[in-house]
Design goal:
By secondary structure, the protein is of the alpha/beta class. It contains 18 helices and seven strands. The strands form two sheets. Strands 3-4-5-6-7 form a five-stranded mixed β-sheet, sandwiched between helices. α11 packs across α12 (248-255). The longest helix has 20 residues, at 23-42. The radius of gyration is 22 Å and the shape is globular.
């Protein structure tokens, strides 16, 4: 990630310093940046001269003191709070008081990281999505003490890098990763209840939902062990929020060493290629198929997953973690959703979504299925979606 971010910075026209305390890692990072520029030139994204100029703006440095004149420092060190604290203490003694310190963390609270800085108000989150030079999204995260000046600089830097920038408030998973939690967790619940098997759930999500990958394929790609640690972190940081309770299925897979693609076995067996049969040919009537994707059966496999994702987005919206537009933009650009969940909900009808959630709550009597207050408020005020002219968004047509 560090090399990818450095490539973005140099490409944007900024003089860029790259540091790593391990000399071999520093050289590997610099080489990755150069290779990245070469690939962009080969693919026609940059001219040969632009790629050479970008690579020329990168300079490797062997000590943190080289950052003294920087206006922005972005760290991508391993996700260990004590390691980040030590780095921020050192940087606070080196850079100017106006320098913004940004963390690329995806799992730690920005507020907790900022506690080690002499001026926590200048610490923000800049969460790039992997691979950083390719993915179009950047989350800028406000810690409890982050100043608007620091956030504005991070935002402007992201735009200069060619990113679509969304704003999020500090909290577990920030905005995009938080809103996506039910995509995997509800699929695991369906599997646990033996409503459908892994292959069927994934195929329905791909074929009927329009997703590029099913939830189990995605969990294999990320790493089931990584996903379990993220689930534990969410659950602990929220002091036991039922919506984020880890699944015992993932714990069993991790105990068996089946971590996903990286170990050759996860929810799928990757010893052969392809690891699954191809999907059937799509419906020859694209308009009808598109309508079906917008109006899934809310009591089927796909409907449960989608309603839980919409509900989590509504919780995040109501808690002020991000705006409705930023939520939908983040889910589309950061996670390749076929459309924004909140706009999707407006097409379905918010009363229908809430009714499906209330039905699940009546069936299971579990807090994980409670409807978000914001969703319930919109329904009670008659903002039911596009057909009423307003839902999560306003409509004039």
């Amino acid at each position: 990630m560090g090399a990818g971010i450095a490539q973005l910075a140099a490409r944007s026209g900024a003089n860029t310093f790259l540091f790593d305390p391990i000399p071999e890692a520093l050289q590997r990072g610099a080489e990755k940046v150069r290779e990245g520029f070469e690939k962009e030139a080969d693919r026609g994204r940059l001219s040969a001269d632009e790629a050479a100029a970008g690579a020329g703006r990168l300079q490797t440095v062997d000590e943190l003191a080289a950052f003294a004149a920087c206006e922005l420092v972005i760290e991508a060190v391993p996700e260990r709070l004590e390691l980040k604290h030590e780095l921020y203490r050192q940087l606070s003694e080196i850079v100017s008081e106006k320098c913004v310190l940004a963390s690329n963390t995806s799992s730690l609270l920005v507020t907790a990281i900022a506690a080690a800085a002499s001026k926590p108000e200048r610490v923000v989150g800049m969460h790039f999505f992997n691979p950083a030079p390719v993915m179009r999204l950047l989350e800028v995260i406000a810690g409890e003490q982050s100043s608007e000046q620091a956030l504005a600089l991070a935002h402007a830097t992201g735009e200069a890098m060619g990113k679509t920038v969304i704003r999020a408030k500090d909290g577990p998973g920030f905005l995009v990763n938080r809103c996506n939690r039910p995509f995997g967790l509800e699929a695991l619940r369906l599997l646990q209840e033996r409503i459908a098997d892994i292959e069927t759930i994934d195929r329905i999500v791909r074929m009927e939902g329009g997703f590029r990958m099913g939830p189990f394929e995605l969990m294999d790609l990320v790493g089931i062990d990584t996903g379990l640690e993220i689930s534990k972190s969410f659950y602990e940081q929220s002091f036991g929020e039922p919506r984020w309770r880890p699944s015992p299925i993932t714990a069993r897979y991790v105990a068996a060493g089946r971590y996903g693609r990286k170990t050759g076995r996860g929810y799928y067996d990757y010893s052969s290629d392809p690891y699954r049969p191809p999907d059937p040919d799509p419906d020859p009537d694209p308009p009808a198929r598109a309508d079906a994707k917008m109006q899934p059966a809310l009591d089927g496999v796909l409907g449960r997953i989608l309603c839980q994702v919409i509900n989590e987005c509504a919780f995040a919206l109501g808690e002020g973690v991000g705006s409705a537009q930023d939520i939908d933009t983040g889910m589309v650009l950061g996670l390749n959703y076929p459309r924004g969940p909140l706009a999707w909900a407006d097409e379905i009808g918010l009363d229908q979504v809430l009714s499906a959630l209330d039905g699940l709550w009546e069936k299971y009597r579990e807090e994980r299925y409670r409807g978000a207050p914001e969703l319930r408020r919109l329904v009670h005020t008659g903002r039911l979606g596009r057909h009423t002219g307003a839902g999560f968004f306003e409509y004039s047509d």
